[in-house]
Amino acid sequence: MQQPIWNFEQDPTDEAMDETSFNLRAYFDRMDDAKLLQYSTKWSDEQVVTWDDNFKSDGDLFLPCSERDVDVTEYRRVLEQCLRYRDRVRHRAQ
Fold first, then answer.
1. Number of separate domains in the chain
2. Which one, out of 22, 41, 49, 56, has a CA that is 20 to 30 A from the CA of 63?
3. For the segment 12-57, what is each residue's pLDDT rounded down to a tens digit?
């Protein structure tokens, strides 16, 4: 598997991080930029779940090797942090 150009997983944060937090950040690192840029804060939770297409029937993200479940609320919060991170990285690269 090719490593992503992003390193959101290791981007400093003031939040307390556990194994699941790092796994979720790594999940977003591997998400294609074109797909990530499709995301809209205006979408309903159901639209987000459908767009990602990796949520289980119980409503939590399928995230192997994680200690806890990630619901759509946490998913959206971290996804939006990832978008801001990528904007910073893109800006520095210009």
1. 1
2. 41
3. 999 999 999 999 999 999 999 999 999 999 999 999 999 999 999 9
Cα separation, 75 vs 49, whole angstroms: 10
With DSSP H G I counted as helix, E B as strand and the rest as coil, what are the percentages for the chain, rounded to 5? 50, 0, 45
| Class of residue 45 by CB neighbours under 10 A (exposed 0-12, middle 13-18, buried 19+) | middle
Decide if 73 is inside a domain.
yes
Examine residue 65 and state whether it is found in any structural domain, yes or no: yes
Within-domain flag for 34: yes
Q: Is pTM beyond 0.85 here?
A: yes
Q: Extract the tokens encoding 22.
A: 């790092």
Q: Which domain holds residue 65?
A: 18-93
